[in-house]
Amino acid sequence: MPAQASAPSQPASMASPEAQKTGAAPAEENQVGTGTEKMGAPAPPYRKSWLARHFSLLRRDRQAQKAGQLFSGLLALNVVFLGGAFICSMIFNNVAVTLGDVWILLAALKALSLLWLLYYATCTTRHTHAMLFRDPHAGSIWVRGSLVLFGSCAICLNVFRVGYDVSHIHCKLQLELVFPVIEIVFIGAQTWVLWKHCKDCVQVQTNFTRCGLMLTLATNLLLWVLAVTNDSMHREIKAELSALVENFSGNDTNTCVCLNATVCEVFQKGYLMLYPFSTEYCLICCAVLFVMWKNVGRRLAPHAGARPGTPPFHLHGAIFGPLLGLLALVAGVCVFVLFQIEASGLAIARQYFILYYAFYVAVLPAMSLACLAGTAIHGLEERELDTLKNPTRSLDVVLLMGAALGQMGIAYFSIVAIVATRPHELLNRLILAYSLLIILQHIAQNLFIIEGLHRRPLWETAGKQEDEPPRRGSLLELGQDLRRASLAYIHSYSHLNWKRRALKEICLFLILCNLTLWMMPAFGIHPEFENGLEKDFYGYRTWFTIVNFGLPLGVFYRMHSVGGLVEVYLEA
Q1: How many helices (H) and strands (E) does the chain have?
Q2: What angle do CA 556, 562, 563 make, to 5 degrees?
Q3: Residue 385: helix, strand or coil by DSSP?
Q4: Of 457, 452, 461, nearest to 396 (Cα)?
Q5: Which 3-state string (H, E, C) describes 349-363?
Q6: Tens digits of per-residue pLDDT, 264-279?
Q7: How open is the CA angle 149-151-155, to the nearest 5 degrees?
Q8: How far apart are the first and last CA of the chain?
Q9: Using alpha carbons only, what angle is made at residue 339 by residues 543 and 150, rounded to the nearest 5 degrees?
């Protein structure tokens, strides 16, 4: 009987392979659904490996990051277009859209940006995993120092504006006092947040952070555009001076005149002197906000970009560069003081313009030759090019090239005005030579700095062999390799060959010259606007816009060049 009972069971087990497969399929799916696996059974085709799933997550993360950047960029673009439409309407149709309407729009944008800045500093940055990384290249000390310096000057500018409006309160709306106060609060909060968080790589609330950064950047950009194009305060001061002259001669005018002439003159002089700093501050804030926007969601490898071996700033026996640079600095200070004393009067004598431009004509060729010599020495060096991706360095290059367009643009406009009018007069010849030399100097200096920034630092080149993994071989070979690397490293720091010494001399000379050329337009009256040649040729308002567009970029270029030259000096 047992044999008979087992007989029918054998045909069932001897079923066809197709039947076995179809019968096993539901069971197999059941086991996969419940999470159990058969030992030795192949994985289903739709189950991905860990590596594939990891890369798909990275791909989705990159797509989400690009989508967030695109949306926040479109937000900033729409805000800039809206504000630009208001400002253009104010310029071309002052009846329909007034300056007060533009101020109301900017006050609303500043209030929204201020709320986001406070939220970012008090809420976003306090999350547990918000600040896992910080960009070591972002927010260098000279950038943050410029931010504080120009932010303080912009606050002082608005204080002078409030004082000027209060002294004219009998013929002005009290509502006009609100806008400078809002800007003082906005500048103070923005400077504090950017100083403290300019290195952040935020990992939480990334889309909201990107939108807030782009909104703040668009607000600063619109403030810069308004400062470049709006000359209402300058016209008001000029009209008041004309009215005072008319009243002194016995002719009454309807112009709003200050009750205390001495106090008003202080406010006027302070406002006119600090006006370029406001535009400069907006440009620096835009640069810092853009770097923060690029760093949102960015993950850095441990010790990525860290430079523990960067040597301190030492002269290393450099003599000629500092001496020539100090000579240019002392001469520049003397010319600057003489020109400012003369500018404090009613009119500037012609010989002071000649002295001012003659100084530039003497200094700019020396700077250009130094930059060309430094670029040639870079070509003779053994250092390798640094081809690694570095967003901060890429932004430095873009800012260097973009800021150079300011002074170069003014120079080209001056060349056209001089050639078309009176090119044979002495002052006009000096201005023409100055314009041509300023273009040449900007091009040569950009080549020198960009070439130096893309060279691998010397301490990395010297210590490259030390970072390599030890090869298989005898202990004697390993010891000899380490000894050669150590000797090369010590030789690099203890001995300066002629190429390195020449680069350091050139960098120190250019640093002092750029500081001189930064000081003269930043803290004084601008000869480009006061000599009258281009103003008569292009008209007051057109030349006002050109100068206010180019001069802040020129000041920013000199400061940015000093930072780049210091880095080239340290890496030489």
Answers
A1: 20, 2
A2: 90
A3: strand
A4: 452
A5: CHHHHHHHHHHHHHH
A6: 878 887 887 788 788 8
A7: 120
A8: 99
A9: 65
Task: Determine the length of the chain.
Answer: 572
What is residue 134's three-state secondary structure? strand
Identify the burial level of 509 via C-beta atoms within 10 angstroms of its C-beta, where 0-12 means exposed, 13-18 middle and 19 or more buried.
buried
| SS3 annotation, 398-465 | HHHHHHHHHHHHHHHHHHHHHHHCCCCCHHHHHHHHHHHHHHHHHHHHHHHHHHHHCECCHHHHHCHH
Rg (the chain; Cα; Å): 33
Name the one residue in this structure whose structure tokens are 């040569």: 444
Q: What is the pLDDT of residues 164-201, one digit of tens each?
A: 888 877 777 777 788 899 999 999 999 999 998 888 88
> What is the per-residue burial (b if ≥16 Cβ within 10 Å, else e) of 333-351?
eebbeebeebeeeeebeee
Q: Which residue has the tokens 């026996």?
A: 317
Distances (CA, A) of 148 to 191, 281, 380: 7, 9, 40
| Alpha-carbon distances, residue 209 vs 128, 129, 136, 288, 325 (angstroms) | 16, 15, 20, 14, 44
SS3 content of the chain, % helix, strand, coil (to 5): 75, 0, 20
Distance in angstroms (rounded) separating the CA atoms of residues 152 and 150: 5
What type of residue sits at position 461?
T
Tokens of 115: 């709320």
CB contact at 8 A, 474 and 539: no
Residue type, 311: P
Q: Which of 74, 512, 80, 561 is nearest to 282 (CA)?
A: 80
pLDDT digit string, tens, across residues 96-143: 788 888 999 999 999 999 999 999 988 888 877 777 777 777 777 778
